[in-house]
């Protein structure tokens, strides 16, 4: 049956749904809503309230508000200070919009009342009682007195109003409220509201549990504070010194007794005053205690008396290190300047060389010879700038940087600090440690080095800094600019022998605490280990092999029930197994296209044979032997040079069309690269193409240009040692490397015929059989 239609002013509500039988208030501020309110007051005080779908829309259209709302009676109007109107209304009936009328002044609507006929039944009564019971449980859980309002409605007499009242209180989501408002069938409406009431009970229980936990925690803290205050009062009455007062007095005494720089003393007193006014058990109090401990641990005014005597220093260096004359000379020069001038300034030494050559121990010896305390900072893998500068105190777990740690450990402000592995610094999003080191290693800046944790200046100008690195390639250029580089090259065969005999053997016996007389190691055994079981620039591997040999010798003594054992060359293979390395031995026969080159590796020098073979073909050049890019380019440059100068060497001009050439470096599985194989490849090519044999006792090194000029190389000392070890008696080197000949030990230099060459022609003249009689 069609309900009666009538027209009422309409006010769209934002974020609010009003149910019948519920009293609510809301604020009106929009111009059309105020006009609609005024119209309602003039005509029966009734207004139609309906919710907006999107509360953000200022002036909603028909499709932007819901279809079903509530006819309300205006109870009270109150004008507010901000020109809005607060309205108190009571919901009366549900109604549906039939026609939406948007006037210029206000919105009105033709509406149709929605009535719900409720037939009394036991099922409805049961639903209502169940809802009533759950709602009472919710009110009890949240501790609300809303129950007085609910009591005004008898649930069984007016179930619709009762359900609407509960929905208005217990449902928070506006969309759900609108769904309940639009549900006319009473049973469905009760089911919806009942579900939301049970959800509310669950949420309220969780909130109560959390609230009780928080309250308990706060009560416990208040209790502890109260008890502490009582304890303090009791201790004062008894005349006992409380621990906190003792601690502050201790800090006060230490600060007044320690000779601080002015700014450090001010900072220490400031932090102590903060500690006095703070609860001693607070986390901030612990931070301040840690800070004061660090301030007091730094040796602000303590220095060891530096004793520089270059004669004594030379004696100590010679005792602790065999060989390394260049390094020792440079260190003595460095110390001589400091002894004569008494200045604290000076270059930062950077010892560069392969692993195991004694860079770190040299730094320790310098500290020993200058009477300075020694501290070592390992930079390998360091990524965080705070490792050098320290963390700011605002961070949890903040600590000072490694510089402050080193000064604390050394207990002096003028130690020798070694930056070990400076070439292995990394960087990430936390900063670049090398940038922090720029300040540390600059004598103009390190007077006022500031640690982020300590927040005061530390004078590092009296510290002697030494750095070590395996290579300079990865050291940042600005950092390298602040240091003076000293190259520590690998040891010669003789140096290794003397180091092993005079230092390593006695060191090993001392470490294992066994008398040296138990195991006697013959010189031939040491030489056999150096030749066949180690191939390195340093002596770490040699020390490990000697240690292994001594251990196995001791085991033999016990197995055979002997008193002592002597180990010679014959015993070495029995105890250590087969030789690990075999150095290349030269052929005793002159061959065509086979040339002995000299190479430098991470283990020191080595010989590198290069073979060239010519075959009938179409002019292909094939390179094998796992040659790197640089060596491949050297081969191509050598090929071009030979092709351009074919006439000069009596080579058929069109060989590049009719001959295939294969250049090979034996041990193909071993990668080879470096800029020193050019002359070797030219010699091999000329020999192969002319049929002239290469002298078997000649080795060579040097890069070649397209015009035949021989370029200088590095590592001449190591290469010469390797050539001599392989049985070579003549080496050909670039002219520009003549200055490096003096670096070759005298014992080897006197047995080698060293020929310098500036042009390829001179190399060929001395390397090919039959060429030494020709004028090229």
UniProtKB/TrEMBL annotation:
Domain Lon N-terminal: 8-201
A single MF term (Gene Ontology): ATP hydrolysis activity
EC id: 3.4.21.53
Single Gene Ontology BP annotation: cellular response to heat
EC category: hydrolase
Superkingdom of the organism of origin: Bacteria
Active-site residues, as the UniProt record annotates them: 676, 719
Reactions it catalyzes: Hydrolysis of proteins in presence of ATP
SUPFAM superfamilies per UniProt: P-loop containing nucleoside triphosphate hydrolases (SSF52540), PUA domain-like (SSF88697), Ribosomal protein S5 domain 2-like (SSF54211)
Record PROSITE patterns: LON_N (PS51787), LON_PROTEOLYTIC (PS51786), LON_SER (PS01046)
This protein's UniProt keywords: ATP-binding, Cytoplasm, Hydrolase, Nucleotide-binding, Protease, Serine protease, Stress response
Role: ATP-dependent serine protease that mediates the selective degradation of mutant and abnormal proteins as well as certain short-lived regulatory proteins. Required for cellular homeostasis and for survival from DNA damage and developmental changes induced by stress. Degrades polypeptides processively to yield small peptide fragments that are 5 to 10 amino acids long. Binds to DNA in a double-stranded, site-specific manner.
Quaternary organization: Homohexamer. Organized in a ring with a central cavity.
Name of the featured protein: Lon protease
């Amino acid at each position: 049956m069609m309900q009666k239609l009538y027209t009422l002013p309409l006010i769209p509500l934002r974020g609010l749904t009003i149910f019948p039988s519920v009293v609510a208030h809301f604020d009106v501020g929009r111009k059309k809503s105020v006009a609609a309110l005024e119209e309602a007051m003039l005509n029966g005080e009734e207004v139609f309230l309906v919710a907006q779908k999107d509360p953000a829309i200022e002036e909603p259209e028909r499709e932007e508000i819901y279809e079903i709302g509530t006819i309300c009676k205006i109870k009270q109007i109150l004008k507010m200070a901000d020109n809005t109107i607060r309205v108190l209304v009571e919901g009366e009936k549900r109604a549906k919009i039939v026609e939406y009328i948007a006037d210029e002044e206000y919105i009105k609507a033709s509406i149709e009342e929605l009535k719900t006929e409720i037939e009394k039944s036991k099922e409805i009564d049961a639903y209502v009682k169940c809802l009533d019971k759950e709602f009472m449980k919710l009110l009890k859980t949240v501790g609300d007195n809303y129950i007085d309002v609910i009591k005004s409605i008898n649930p069984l007499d007016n179930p619709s109003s009762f359900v609407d009242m509960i929905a208005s209180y217990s449902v928070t989501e506006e969309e759900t409220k609108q769904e309940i408002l639009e549900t006319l069938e009473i049973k469905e409406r009760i089911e919806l509201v009942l579900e939301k009431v049970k959800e509310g009970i669950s949420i309220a229980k969780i909130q109560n549990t959390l609230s009780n936990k928080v309250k308990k925690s706060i009560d416990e803290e208040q209790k502890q504070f109260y008890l502490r205050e009582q304890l303090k009062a009791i201790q004062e009455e008894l005349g006992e010194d409380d621990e906190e007062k003792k601690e502050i007095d201790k800090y006060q005494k230490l600060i007044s007794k320690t000779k601080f720089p002015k700014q450090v003393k001010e900072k220490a007193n400031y932090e102590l005053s903060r500690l006095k006014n703070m609860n001693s058990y607070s986390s901030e109090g612990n931070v301040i205690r840690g800070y004061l401990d660090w301030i007091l641990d730094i040796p602000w005014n303590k220095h060891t008396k530096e004793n520089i005597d270059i004669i004594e220093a030379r004696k100590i260096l010679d005792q602790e290190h065999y060989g390394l004359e260049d390094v020792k000379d440079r260190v003595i020069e460095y110390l001589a300047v400091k002894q004569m001038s008494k200045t604290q300034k000076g270059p930062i030494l950077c010892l560069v060389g392969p692993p195991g050559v004694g860079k770190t121990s040299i730094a320790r010896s310098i500290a020993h010879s200058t009477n300075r305390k020694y501290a070592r900072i390992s930079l390998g893998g360091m990524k965080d700038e705070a490792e050098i500068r320290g963390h700011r105190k605002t961070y949890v777990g903040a600590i000072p940087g490694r510089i402050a740690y080193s000064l604390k450990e050394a207990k002096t402000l003028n130690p020798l600090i070694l930056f070990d592995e400076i070439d292995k610094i990394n960087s990430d999003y936390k900063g670049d440690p090398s940038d922090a080191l720029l300040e540390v290693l600059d004598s103009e800046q390190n007077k006022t080095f500031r640690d982020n944790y300590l927040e005061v200046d530390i004078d590092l100008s009296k510290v002697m800094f030494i750095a070590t690195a395996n290579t300079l390639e990865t050291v940042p250029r600005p950092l390298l600019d602040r240091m003076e580089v000293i190259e520590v090259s690998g040891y010669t065969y003789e140096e290794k022998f003397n180091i092993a005999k005079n230092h390593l053997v006695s060191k090993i016996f001392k470490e294992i605490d066994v008398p040296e007389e138990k195991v006697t190691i013959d010189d031939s055994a040491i030489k056999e280990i150096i030749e066949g079981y180690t191939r390195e620039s340093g002596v770490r591997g040699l020390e490990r092999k000697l240690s292994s040999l001594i251990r196995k010798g001791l085991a033999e003594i016990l197995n055979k029930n002997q008193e002592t054992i002597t180990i010679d060359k014959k015993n070495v293979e029995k105890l250590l197994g087969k030789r690990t390395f075999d150095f290349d031995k030269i052929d005793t026969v002159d061959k065509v296209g086979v040339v002995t080159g000299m190479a430098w590796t991470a283990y020191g020098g080595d010989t590198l044979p290069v073979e060239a073979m010519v075959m009938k073909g179409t002019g292909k050049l094939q390179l094998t032997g796992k040659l790197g890019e640089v060596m491949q380019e050297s081969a191509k440059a050598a090929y071009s040079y030979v092709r351009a100068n074919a006439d000069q060497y009596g080579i058929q001009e069109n060989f590049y069309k009719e001959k295939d050439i294969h250049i090979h470096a034996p041990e193909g599985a071993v990668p080879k690269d470096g800029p020193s194989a050019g002359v070797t490849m030219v010699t091999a090519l000329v020999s192969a193409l002319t049929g002239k044999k290469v002298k078997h006792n000649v080795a060579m090194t040097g890069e070649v240009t397209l015009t035949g000029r021989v370029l200088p190389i590095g590592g001449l000392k190591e290469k010469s040692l390797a050539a001599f070890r392989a049985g070579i008696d003549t080496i050909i080197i670039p002219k520009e490397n003549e200055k490096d000949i003096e670096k070759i030990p005298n014992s080897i230099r006197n047995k080698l015929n060293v020929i310098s060459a500036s042009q390829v022609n001179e190399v060929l003249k001395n390397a090919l059989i039959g060429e030494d009689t020709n004028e090229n």
